Amino acid sequence: MADRLAGIRHLLPRWSAKLGTGLVLVGVIALFGLIAPLFAADPRDSGNKSLLPPSGSHLLGTTKLGYDVFAQLATGTRGSLYVGLVGGLSAMLLAIVFGILAGYFGGWLDEILMLFTNIMLVIPGLPLVMVIAAYVQNVDGLGDFARSSTMVALILGVTGWAGSAIVLRAQARSLRTREYVAAARVAGEKGLRIIFVEILPNLVPLIAAQLIWGVMSAVLGEAGLSYLGLGPTNSITLGTMLNDAQTGQAVGSQAWWWFVPPGAVIALLGTGLALINFAIDEIVNPKLRLAPQAARRQRRATKAGRGVAGGGAFA
Protein backbone atom coordinates (compact mmCIF):
# COMPACT_ATOMS: atom_id res chain seq x y z
CA MET A 1 0.00 0.00 0.00
CA ALA A 2 2.81 2.40 0.87
CA ASP A 3 4.54 1.72 -2.44
CA ARG A 4 1.29 2.31 -4.32
CA LEU A 5 0.69 5.63 -2.54
CA ALA A 6 4.27 6.66 -3.23
CA GLY A 7 3.78 5.87 -6.92
CA ILE A 8 0.57 7.92 -7.06
CA ARG A 9 2.26 10.81 -5.25
CA HIS A 10 5.07 10.71 -7.80
CA LEU A 11 2.53 11.29 -10.60
CA LEU A 12 1.04 14.37 -8.93
CA PRO A 13 2.46 17.87 -9.47
CA ARG A 14 4.22 19.53 -6.57
CA TRP A 15 2.27 22.26 -4.84
CA SER A 16 3.35 25.71 -5.92
CA ALA A 17 1.95 29.21 -6.28
CA LYS A 18 1.27 28.77 -9.99
CA LEU A 19 -0.51 25.46 -9.44
CA GLY A 20 -2.68 26.95 -6.69
CA THR A 21 -3.49 30.03 -8.78
CA GLY A 22 -4.36 27.90 -11.80
CA LEU A 23 -6.62 25.57 -9.79
CA VAL A 24 -8.43 28.52 -8.21
CA LEU A 25 -9.02 30.23 -11.56
CA VAL A 26 -10.23 27.10 -13.32
CA GLY A 27 -12.27 25.97 -10.30
CA VAL A 28 -14.07 29.29 -9.90
CA ILE A 29 -14.88 29.50 -13.64
CA ALA A 30 -16.05 25.87 -13.70
CA LEU A 31 -18.31 26.40 -10.66
CA PHE A 32 -19.67 29.57 -12.20
CA GLY A 33 -20.47 27.73 -15.44
CA LEU A 34 -22.14 24.86 -13.59
CA ILE A 35 -24.07 26.72 -10.89
CA ALA A 36 -24.82 30.22 -12.21
CA PRO A 37 -27.13 29.08 -15.07
CA LEU A 38 -29.42 27.49 -12.46
CA PHE A 39 -30.13 30.89 -10.87
CA ALA A 40 -29.72 33.27 -13.82
CA ALA A 41 -32.55 34.60 -15.94
CA ASP A 42 -33.46 33.21 -19.36
CA PRO A 43 -30.51 34.09 -21.64
CA ARG A 44 -32.89 34.25 -24.63
CA ASP A 45 -35.39 36.62 -23.00
CA SER A 46 -35.46 39.78 -25.14
CA GLY A 47 -38.13 41.55 -23.13
CA ASN A 48 -35.64 43.89 -21.48
CA LYS A 49 -34.59 47.33 -22.70
CA SER A 50 -31.58 47.27 -25.00
CA LEU A 51 -28.06 48.29 -23.99
CA LEU A 52 -28.83 48.90 -20.33
CA PRO A 53 -25.63 49.41 -18.29
CA PRO A 54 -24.89 47.20 -15.29
CA SER A 55 -27.34 47.75 -12.44
CA GLY A 56 -29.05 45.94 -9.59
CA SER A 57 -31.65 44.39 -11.89
CA HIS A 58 -29.10 43.44 -14.57
CA LEU A 59 -25.69 42.79 -13.03
CA LEU A 60 -23.87 43.03 -16.38
CA GLY A 61 -26.40 45.06 -18.32
CA THR A 62 -28.21 43.99 -21.47
CA THR A 63 -27.37 43.52 -25.13
CA LYS A 64 -28.72 45.32 -28.18
CA LEU A 65 -31.56 42.81 -28.36
CA GLY A 66 -32.37 43.08 -24.67
CA TYR A 67 -30.68 39.85 -23.54
CA ASP A 68 -29.33 39.79 -20.00
CA VAL A 69 -25.52 39.68 -20.29
CA PHE A 70 -25.03 37.92 -16.94
CA ALA A 71 -27.42 35.14 -17.95
CA GLN A 72 -25.70 34.79 -21.30
CA LEU A 73 -22.27 34.79 -19.63
CA ALA A 74 -23.31 32.01 -17.25
CA THR A 75 -24.76 29.88 -20.05
CA GLY A 76 -21.90 30.76 -22.40
CA THR A 77 -19.28 29.72 -19.84
CA ARG A 78 -20.95 26.33 -19.49
CA GLY A 79 -21.11 25.98 -23.29
CA SER A 80 -17.43 26.87 -23.75
CA LEU A 81 -16.40 24.44 -21.01
CA TYR A 82 -18.39 21.71 -22.75
CA VAL A 83 -16.70 22.46 -26.08
CA GLY A 84 -13.30 22.48 -24.37
CA LEU A 85 -13.82 19.13 -22.65
CA VAL A 86 -15.23 17.35 -25.70
CA GLY A 87 -12.59 18.84 -28.01
CA GLY A 88 -9.75 18.14 -25.58
CA LEU A 89 -10.83 14.54 -24.96
CA SER A 90 -11.24 13.90 -28.70
CA ALA A 91 -7.79 15.27 -29.44
CA MET A 92 -6.24 13.30 -26.56
CA LEU A 93 -7.81 10.00 -27.66
CA LEU A 94 -6.58 10.45 -31.23
CA ALA A 95 -3.13 11.43 -29.98
CA ILE A 96 -2.98 8.28 -27.82
CA VAL A 97 -4.04 6.03 -30.70
CA PHE A 98 -1.68 7.53 -33.27
CA GLY A 99 1.24 8.39 -30.97
CA ILE A 100 1.48 5.43 -28.62
CA LEU A 101 0.66 2.75 -31.19
CA ALA A 102 3.23 4.18 -33.59
CA GLY A 103 5.86 4.54 -30.85
CA TYR A 104 5.43 1.07 -29.40
CA PHE A 105 4.93 -1.14 -32.46
CA GLY A 106 7.18 0.78 -34.88
CA GLY A 107 7.80 -0.63 -38.36
CA TRP A 108 5.24 -0.13 -41.12
CA LEU A 109 2.51 0.87 -38.66
CA ASP A 110 4.74 3.65 -37.35
CA GLU A 111 5.42 4.89 -40.88
CA ILE A 112 1.75 4.94 -41.88
CA LEU A 113 0.53 6.62 -38.69
CA MET A 114 3.35 9.17 -38.70
CA LEU A 115 2.75 9.95 -42.37
CA PHE A 116 -0.82 10.92 -41.59
CA THR A 117 0.29 12.77 -38.43
CA ASN A 118 2.89 14.79 -40.34
CA ILE A 119 0.31 15.72 -42.96
CA MET A 120 -1.94 17.05 -40.21
CA LEU A 121 1.00 18.98 -38.75
CA VAL A 122 1.94 20.84 -41.93
CA ILE A 123 -1.62 21.92 -42.77
CA PRO A 124 -2.36 25.34 -41.21
CA GLY A 125 -4.71 24.78 -38.30
CA LEU A 126 -7.15 27.69 -38.51
CA PRO A 127 -7.80 27.48 -42.27
CA LEU A 128 -8.32 23.72 -41.96
CA VAL A 129 -10.83 24.16 -39.14
CA MET A 130 -12.65 26.87 -41.07
CA VAL A 131 -12.91 24.74 -44.21
CA ILE A 132 -14.14 21.66 -42.33
CA ALA A 133 -16.62 23.68 -40.27
CA ALA A 134 -18.00 25.45 -43.34
CA TYR A 135 -18.30 22.14 -45.23
CA VAL A 136 -19.95 20.19 -42.40
CA GLN A 137 -22.48 22.94 -41.78
CA ASN A 138 -23.75 22.51 -45.37
CA VAL A 139 -23.94 18.71 -45.39
CA ASP A 140 -27.46 17.41 -45.93
CA GLY A 141 -28.88 15.08 -43.33
CA LEU A 142 -27.07 16.44 -40.27
CA GLY A 143 -29.74 19.00 -39.48
CA ASP A 144 -29.19 21.08 -36.35
CA PHE A 145 -26.28 18.84 -35.33
CA ALA A 146 -24.16 20.45 -38.07
CA ARG A 147 -24.10 23.76 -36.16
CA SER A 148 -24.12 22.32 -32.65
CA SER A 149 -21.50 22.74 -29.95
CA THR A 150 -20.72 19.01 -30.12
CA MET A 151 -19.92 19.19 -33.83
CA VAL A 152 -17.69 22.23 -33.35
CA ALA A 153 -15.89 20.47 -30.49
CA LEU A 154 -15.36 17.32 -32.57
CA ILE A 155 -13.99 19.36 -35.48
CA LEU A 156 -11.53 21.09 -33.16
CA GLY A 157 -10.51 17.75 -31.64
CA VAL A 158 -10.03 16.02 -34.99
CA THR A 159 -7.80 18.85 -36.23
CA GLY A 160 -5.79 19.41 -33.03
CA TRP A 161 -4.25 16.08 -32.04
CA ALA A 162 -1.14 15.84 -34.22
CA GLY A 163 1.29 17.77 -32.02
CA SER A 164 0.38 15.71 -28.95
CA ALA A 165 0.76 12.49 -30.96
CA ILE A 166 4.37 13.39 -31.81
CA VAL A 167 5.17 13.95 -28.13
CA LEU A 168 3.50 10.70 -27.01
CA ARG A 169 5.22 8.74 -29.78
CA ALA A 170 8.65 9.90 -28.60
CA GLN A 171 7.90 8.87 -25.02
CA ALA A 172 6.43 5.51 -26.08
CA ARG A 173 9.55 4.76 -28.13
CA SER A 174 11.64 5.45 -25.05
CA LEU A 175 9.50 3.35 -22.70
CA ARG A 176 9.36 0.30 -24.96
CA THR A 177 13.10 -0.23 -24.39
CA ARG A 178 12.76 -0.31 -20.59
CA GLU A 179 13.48 -3.54 -18.74
CA TYR A 180 9.97 -4.05 -17.36
CA VAL A 181 8.49 -3.77 -20.87
CA ALA A 182 11.02 -6.27 -22.20
CA ALA A 183 10.21 -8.60 -19.32
CA ALA A 184 6.50 -8.38 -20.14
CA ARG A 185 7.19 -9.27 -23.78
CA VAL A 186 9.35 -12.23 -22.72
CA ALA A 187 6.52 -13.37 -20.45
CA GLY A 188 4.26 -13.56 -23.49
CA GLU A 189 2.10 -10.50 -22.83
CA LYS A 190 0.27 -9.11 -25.85
CA GLY A 191 1.19 -5.73 -27.23
CA LEU A 192 -2.06 -3.97 -26.35
CA ARG A 193 -1.96 -5.27 -22.78
CA ILE A 194 1.62 -4.01 -22.40
CA ILE A 195 0.51 -0.61 -23.66
CA PHE A 196 -2.39 -0.35 -21.20
CA VAL A 197 -0.65 -1.90 -18.19
CA GLU A 198 3.02 -0.95 -18.53
CA ILE A 199 3.24 2.14 -20.76
CA LEU A 200 0.08 4.22 -20.27
CA PRO A 201 0.41 4.50 -16.44
CA ASN A 202 3.88 6.00 -16.89
CA LEU A 203 2.51 8.54 -19.37
CA VAL A 204 -0.27 9.84 -17.10
CA PRO A 205 1.41 13.23 -16.38
CA LEU A 206 2.21 13.76 -20.05
CA ILE A 207 -1.29 12.75 -21.15
CA ALA A 208 -2.79 15.08 -18.53
CA ALA A 209 -0.65 17.93 -19.83
CA GLN A 210 -1.74 17.24 -23.41
CA LEU A 211 -5.39 17.04 -22.29
CA ILE A 212 -5.20 20.43 -20.59
CA TRP A 213 -3.54 21.87 -23.67
CA GLY A 214 -6.29 20.36 -25.83
CA VAL A 215 -9.04 21.85 -23.65
CA MET A 216 -7.42 25.27 -23.80
CA SER A 217 -6.97 25.06 -27.58
CA ALA A 218 -10.59 23.95 -28.05
CA VAL A 219 -11.95 26.86 -25.99
CA LEU A 220 -9.84 29.38 -27.90
CA GLY A 221 -10.59 27.67 -31.22
CA GLU A 222 -14.34 27.79 -30.62
CA ALA A 223 -14.10 31.46 -29.72
CA GLY A 224 -12.24 32.14 -32.96
CA LEU A 225 -14.70 30.15 -35.07
CA SER A 226 -17.70 31.80 -33.45
CA TYR A 227 -16.19 35.25 -33.89
CA LEU A 228 -15.88 34.47 -37.61
CA GLY A 229 -19.49 33.26 -37.74
CA LEU A 230 -18.70 29.54 -38.00
CA GLY A 231 -19.52 28.57 -34.43
CA PRO A 232 -22.61 26.87 -32.99
CA THR A 233 -25.94 28.55 -33.68
CA ASN A 234 -28.28 26.57 -31.42
CA SER A 235 -26.33 27.18 -28.20
CA ILE A 236 -24.63 30.01 -26.36
CA THR A 237 -20.87 30.09 -25.80
CA LEU A 238 -18.38 32.76 -24.92
CA GLY A 239 -17.42 32.86 -28.59
CA THR A 240 -21.00 33.43 -29.78
CA MET A 241 -21.29 36.25 -27.23
CA LEU A 242 -18.25 37.93 -28.76
CA ASN A 243 -19.70 37.42 -32.25
CA ASP A 244 -23.00 38.98 -31.19
CA ALA A 245 -21.15 41.90 -29.63
CA GLN A 246 -19.13 42.42 -32.80
CA THR A 247 -22.13 42.26 -35.14
CA GLY A 248 -24.15 44.43 -32.75
CA GLN A 249 -21.44 47.13 -32.78
CA ALA A 250 -20.90 46.95 -29.04
CA VAL A 251 -17.60 48.82 -29.29
CA GLY A 252 -19.14 51.65 -31.27
CA SER A 253 -22.01 51.83 -28.79
CA GLN A 254 -19.50 51.87 -25.90
CA ALA A 255 -21.32 48.88 -24.38
CA TRP A 256 -18.19 47.51 -22.71
CA TRP A 257 -20.28 45.25 -20.46
CA TRP A 258 -21.28 43.27 -23.55
CA PHE A 259 -17.85 42.14 -24.78
CA VAL A 260 -15.46 42.59 -21.83
CA PRO A 261 -16.93 39.82 -19.54
CA PRO A 262 -16.76 36.96 -22.10
CA GLY A 263 -13.29 38.05 -23.19
CA ALA A 264 -12.13 38.23 -19.57
CA VAL A 265 -13.49 34.75 -18.79
CA ILE A 266 -11.71 33.29 -21.84
CA ALA A 267 -8.45 35.00 -20.82
CA LEU A 268 -8.69 33.88 -17.18
CA LEU A 269 -9.61 30.32 -18.14
CA GLY A 270 -6.66 30.12 -20.54
CA THR A 271 -4.34 31.56 -17.87
CA GLY A 272 -5.52 29.05 -15.27
CA LEU A 273 -5.12 26.07 -17.59
CA ALA A 274 -1.67 27.28 -18.65
CA LEU A 275 -0.53 27.61 -15.03
CA ILE A 276 -1.73 24.07 -14.24
CA ASN A 277 0.07 22.83 -17.34
CA PHE A 278 3.30 24.50 -16.21
CA ALA A 279 3.03 22.66 -12.89
CA ILE A 280 2.50 19.33 -14.65
CA ASP A 281 5.48 20.04 -16.89
CA GLU A 282 7.70 19.86 -13.81
CA ILE A 283 6.82 16.15 -13.55
CA VAL A 284 7.46 15.47 -17.22
CA ASN A 285 10.68 17.50 -17.39
CA PRO A 286 13.10 16.77 -14.49
CA LYS A 287 15.11 19.90 -15.30
CA LEU A 288 12.10 22.08 -14.51
CA ARG A 289 11.50 20.14 -11.28
CA LEU A 290 15.08 20.48 -10.07
CA ALA A 291 15.65 24.07 -11.22
CA PRO A 292 13.89 25.74 -8.22
CA GLN A 293 15.88 23.61 -5.77
CA ALA A 294 19.16 24.57 -7.44
CA ALA A 295 18.13 28.24 -7.42
CA ARG A 296 17.35 28.09 -3.70
CA ARG A 297 20.69 26.42 -2.97
CA GLN A 298 22.48 29.10 -4.93
CA ARG A 299 20.70 31.90 -3.08
CA ARG A 300 21.54 30.35 0.29
CA ALA A 301 25.16 29.91 -0.75
CA THR A 302 25.35 33.51 -1.95
CA LYS A 303 24.00 34.80 1.35
CA ALA A 304 26.53 32.62 3.20
CA GLY A 305 29.37 34.08 1.10
CA ARG A 306 30.09 30.87 -0.79
CA GLY A 307 30.12 30.19 -4.53
CA VAL A 308 28.28 27.50 -6.41
CA ALA A 309 29.96 25.51 -9.13
CA GLY A 310 28.40 24.98 -12.52
CA GLY A 311 27.08 21.52 -11.66
CA GLY A 312 25.28 22.76 -8.56
CA ALA A 313 28.05 21.77 -6.08
CA PHE A 314 29.30 24.32 -3.59
CA ALA A 315 32.75 25.70 -4.29
From TrEMBL:
It is found in: Cell membrane. This is Peptide/nickel transport system permease protein. PANTHER family: D,D-DIPEPTIDE TRANSPORT SYSTEM PERMEASE PROTEIN DDPC-RELATED, OLIGOPEPTIDE TRANSPORT SYSTEM PERMEASE PROTEIN APPC. Residues 77-277 form the ABC transmembrane type-1 domain. The keyword Ubl conjugation does not apply. GO terms for molecular function: dipeptide transmembrane transporter activity. The keyword Repeat does not apply. Pfam families: BPD_transp_1. Its main location: membrane. The chain crosses the membrane at residues 21-41, 81-105, 112-136, 148-168, 199-220, 256-280. Belongs to the binding-protein-dependent transport system permease family. Keywords: Cell membrane, Membrane, Transmembrane, Transmembrane helix, Transport. InterPro entries: BP-dependent_transpt_permease (IPR050366), MetI-like (IPR000515), MetI-like_sf (IPR035906). It is a multi-pass membrane protein. One of its GO terms (cellular component) is plasma membrane.
